């Protein structure tokens, strides 16, 4: 009875950390499970879906991941597809054999919901809708999406992007939360400042705004001018003041090949780029970020499994060696 009470306490704590969102793939509690399902480190990588989405969980498992991101289609093609029941069942079955507790899909790079070109915007909206439908079908928790490029005028672009998000969420009801990813701010990209991201989210119509939150990519915000290496606490306090920490649902852990404020998005291995080791040590041991899933999108080099394993081991080492 005492043990049961303790378990319930842990569950409550975990529920609060998840901001009320239920982890759909969490398994029933097993006291002999080597990984404590209510105090997990949600850490993983973007994994390949080569051969079909049901192959992705095994790749996550092979690197010891507890969080996973993937594409649900070819990210650089317009061609759309549905997830048939058989695929969805196979994906869910594969996922239950892993320790993965947090799942995200990343949308296609071609989508530009902020475009002033009606043809491109319509195509982007249809494609984004299909992304959402696949996420719902596969039971993914999050759909990560880059804010678009405004092309003509920034304020109009933000308005178009927010309107399109509202339309897509209206057309695809469900539980998937759209995470708008902070951008490096190259060209006319929207979403490279916390203020602009807040403006974008606030412009999404209220019933659907609840299903929109934020993904911070460490390499992108560094390239956008947020100095996580030199002013770690300052950056997060600005995030908290502008967007609110409750809006942060996913962190992409990437070092940057390009310097602070370069506005160029080039990912580097953890602790081997311009950010260096310190900010990653801080993130891995930051109380405020402990329940936030974290995934790497670092170069895979010759062998994705070996390299990702090495990166995740490096990150877990920061937790273990924390004072
Ligand atoms: Zn991204
Ligand atoms: Zn990213």
Descriptive overview:
The longest helix has 21 residues, at 118-138. The chain has helices at 2-17, 56-62, 85-96, 118-138, 154-171, 194-202, 206-209, 218-223, 232-242, 277-284, 304-320; strands at residues 43-46, 67-71, 102-106, 142-145, 177-181, 212-217, 248-253, 255-256, 267-268, 294-296. The protein has one domain: TIM Barrel. It is globular. The protein is built from 11 helices and 10 strands. Strand 1 (43-46), helix 2 (56-62) and strand 2 (67-71) form a beta-alpha-beta unit. The chain is 40% helix and 13% strand. The model is unreliable at 1-38 (pLDDT under 50). The chain is an alpha/beta fold and 323 residues long. The strands form 2 sheets. It has an 8-stranded parallel barrel with strand order 1-2-3-4-5-6-7-10. Strands 8-9 form a two-stranded antiparallel sheet. The chain starts with a helix and ends with a helix. Helix 4 packs across helix 5 and helix 5 crosses helix 6. Bound molecules: zinc ion (2 copies). The site of one zinc ion (ZN) has 4 residues, from loops. One zinc ion binds at residues 106, 144, 146, 181.
Distance between the termini: 34 Å
CATH superfamily: Divalent-metal-dependent TIM barrel enzymes
The shape, in one word, is globular
**Helix-strand sequence:** HEHEHEHEHEHHEHHEEEHEH
Number of helices: 11
- Tell me the strand order in the biggest sheet: 1-2-3-4-5-6-7-10
Taken together, the total number of domains comes to 1
């Amino acid at each position: 009875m005492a043990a049961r009470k303790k378990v319930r306490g842990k569950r409550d704590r975990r529920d609060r950390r998840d901001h009320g969102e239920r982890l759909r793939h969490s398994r029933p509690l097993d006291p002999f499970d080597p990984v404590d399902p209510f105090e997990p480190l949600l850490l993983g990588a973007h994994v390949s879906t080569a051969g079909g989405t049901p192959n992705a969980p095994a790749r996550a498992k092979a690197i010891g991941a507890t969080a996973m991101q993937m594409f649900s289609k070819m990210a650089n093609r317009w061609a759309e597809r549905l997830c048939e029941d058989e695929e969805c069942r196979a994906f869910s079955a594969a996922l239950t054999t892993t320790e993965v507790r947090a799942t995200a899909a990343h949308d296609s790079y071609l989508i530009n919901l902020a475009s002033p070109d009606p043809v491109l915007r319509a195509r982007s909206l249809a494609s984004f809708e299909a992304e959402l439908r696949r996420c719902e079908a596969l039971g993914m928790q999050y759909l990560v999406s880059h804010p678009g490029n405004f092309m003509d005028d920034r304020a109009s672009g933000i308005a178009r992007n927010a309107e399109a998000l509202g339309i897509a969420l209206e057309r695809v009801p469900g539980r998937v939360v759209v995470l708008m990813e902070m951008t490096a701010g190259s060209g006319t990209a929207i979403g490279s400042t916390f203020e602009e991201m807040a403006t974008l989210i606030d412009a999404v119509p209220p019933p659907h705004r609840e299903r929109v939150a934020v993904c911070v990519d460490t390499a992108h915000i560094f390239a956008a001018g947020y100095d996580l290496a030199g002013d770690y606490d300052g950056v997060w306090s600005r995030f908290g003041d502008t967007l609110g920490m409750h809006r942060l649902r996913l962190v992409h852990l990437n070092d940057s090949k390009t310097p602070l404020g370069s506005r160029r998005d080039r990912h580097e291995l953890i602790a081997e780029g311009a950010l260096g080791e310190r900010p990653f040590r801080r993130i891995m041991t930051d109380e405020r970020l402990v329940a936030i899933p974290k995934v790497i999108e670092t170069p895979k080099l010759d062998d994705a499994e070996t390299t990702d394993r090495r990166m995740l081991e490096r990150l877990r080492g920061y937790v273990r060696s924390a004072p």
